[in-house]
């Protein structure tokens, strides 16, 4: 059994020799952040109020850390192009590998479909109230989704020589937007627009257990999943056995802080008002920058950066 597994691994590695190796550690770290950090999850977490920190920590402890450990271990054991697909196929059987690949295919379809909706919503926020009709227009969403699919298809044909820069730009855009989101409450305190701001206030939930479980599942399985996707690119990384594990270790604390502090910022400005669950970050940027003379322009730039991230991660 061990010899068969080793032979199967060698076959995959031989097929990967012809692939270019454009991905270094920096590219992998940025791709981890791009794949994991989304703009919608801080809105879902903010529905919990100040109990969000309790649930983020719970999700990190019971899902995020174990997932990171498994990805690091399996990648060191089998640093193969295809990542999770190869792990399932070689660790179990061909059918298990097929099911994993099929699920990834279905996920890709869903992500591309949602990407069109998220991009449309972000563009409408960037333009302003005159474009509020865009997310509810089937034609508008369909046209933007079609343009997104065509652009992504072209990027796939070009390969990771182009794709890695698309990923890097998307991750950088996410960094800039989340940095602005996290700094907004501090700016609001300095200007006297916020009376108090406690980003790490730990409170127990007061909602029903079913509601709490619903949000917890979104934070863990939804928000904090994604480390396994970067391992799919192992055959195109310069040192996959070493660098993919390192990228997980470097990106993990950064991602956790972005989610926790980002949720606190949404709460600080949206408060008890309805949260836009599709575009909570653009909504918060608009609210936090509304008193600035150039608020519209600054918020629009940030929101367009969010659209860039959505396109890059799709």
Low-confidence stretches: none
- Computed CA radius of gyration, to the nearest angstrom: 21 Å
| CATH class descriptor name | Mainly Alpha
CATH superfamily: Amino acid/polyamine transporter I
- Determine the mean pLDDT: 83
Strand content: under 5%
Structural class: mainly alpha
The main sheet comes to:
none
CATH architectural label:
Up-down Bundle
CATH topology: Amino acid/polyamine transporter I
Query: What is the helix fraction of residues, given as a range?
Result: over 70%
- Number of E strands: 0
> What is the distance, rounded to the nearest whole angstrom, between the alpha carbons of the first and last residues?
38 Å
Q: What spatial form do the alpha-carbon principal axes imply?
A: globular
Series of H and E elements: HHHHHHHHHHHHH
DSSP summary: helix tally:
13
General description of the model:
The structure is a single chain. The chain has 314 residues and is an all-alpha fold. It has one domain (2-313): Amino acid/polyamine transporter I, CATH 1.20.1740. It is built from 13 helices and no strands. Helix 5 runs antiparallel to helix 6. The mean pLDDT is 83.
Features:
314 residues; mainly alpha; Amino acid/polyamine transporter I
